[in-house]
Write a structure and sequence with these properties.
With 272 residues, this protein is an all-alpha fold. It has 16 helices and no strands. Residues 177-186, 192-207 and 217-257 have low confidence and may be disordered.
């Protein structure tokens, strides 16, 4: 199953329907928009994990959150704390790579949703994507952890592998020079997770562990939305004052940081 398939199966297959009800849009629109957004989101995650430091930080992120709850509970799609978590993840990713605003416009066009609706759903889809990566990466990360500590049984007994793996990688990074770490342990991690190389421009980035951690190549994810809902992809969106067709495509993407600032301004954080 592709990463997109894993995401669409979340919350007993009701994740897109629940999010659609929250936004007041069609479920098919949420599904199509997600298929368009996913490749760019994966590119941002890949950029953020392209270094040992970034990989360790992402592993800590996978360890810290209740991803099984995010993946399984339909009620969390209406929980403002989940939205805030998604915005926090997006803000972290923005330090490594800008999220191309043109992808949001493409998602709106393909799904017949307003641009504002796509922006509102993005934090929730981000949380679902990270939860799906955690689900798919559990077994290979346990195997890698067992190899590193030379104790596979101990690795299998851990509640989750990401925190212990981050700690082990950090320990080895501190004990070794950055060059030794980059050529040794991190190279081993890449080799364990590396997807098949693509000859096409824009294909998977083999230097990012998370690209293969997700079980997805960015090129495959980029192509997936073309088949998600062929009846609606090419249809023009309905007219209206808030319709995305009236907004020109910017010559340069404003970036993920600016997007999260706008989301934060329009949606205050949930009360503690």
């Amino acid at each position: 199953m592709s990463l997109l398939g894993t995401i669409s199966s979340a919350q007993h297959g009701m994740a897109f329907a629940t999010l659609a009800r929250r936004l007041g849009v069609r479920e098919e629109g949420v599904a199509v928009a997600t298929a368009v957004l996913l490749p760019e989101l994966l590119e941002c995650i890949c950029a953020a994990t392209a270094t040992p430091k970034g990989t360790i930080a992402f592993l800590k992120r996978l360890s810290a959150e209740s991803h099984s709850n995010h993946y399984e509970s339909p009620s969390l799609m209406v929980d403002l704390r989940v939205r805030d978590l998604g915005m926090s993840i997006l803000s972290e990713l923005a330090t490594a790579r800008d999220f191309d605003q043109r992808v949001i416009l493409e998602a709106a066009t393909s799904s017949e949703l307003r641009t504002s609706d796509v922006e509102r759903m993005l934090p929730f889809i981000t949380v679902l994507t990270v939860a799906a990566i955690a689900l798919r990466a559990d077994r290979p990360m346990r195997a890698l952890l067992g190899d590193l500590v030379r104790n596979g049984e101990w690795a299998r007994r851990q509640r989750e592998p990401f925190g212990p793996l981050a700690a082990e990688l950090a320990r080895r990074s501190t004990a070794s020079s950055s060059q030794t770490f980059g050529e040794g342990i991190f190279a081993s991690l890449r080799a364990r997770l590396e997807p098949r190389r693509s000859n096409e421009p824009g294909g998977p980035q083999p230097d990012s562990p998370v690209a293969a951690m997700s079980g997805e190549t960015t090129q495959a994810a980029r192509d997936a939305h073309r088949h998600a809902d062929p009846r609606t992809r090419a249809m023009p969106p309905p007219g209206g004052a808030d319709d995305h067709t009236s907004a020109p495509v910017p010559p340069r993407p404003p970036g993920l940081a600016r997007l999260t600032e706008r989301l934060a301004a329009s949606h205050p954080p949930a009360a503690e």
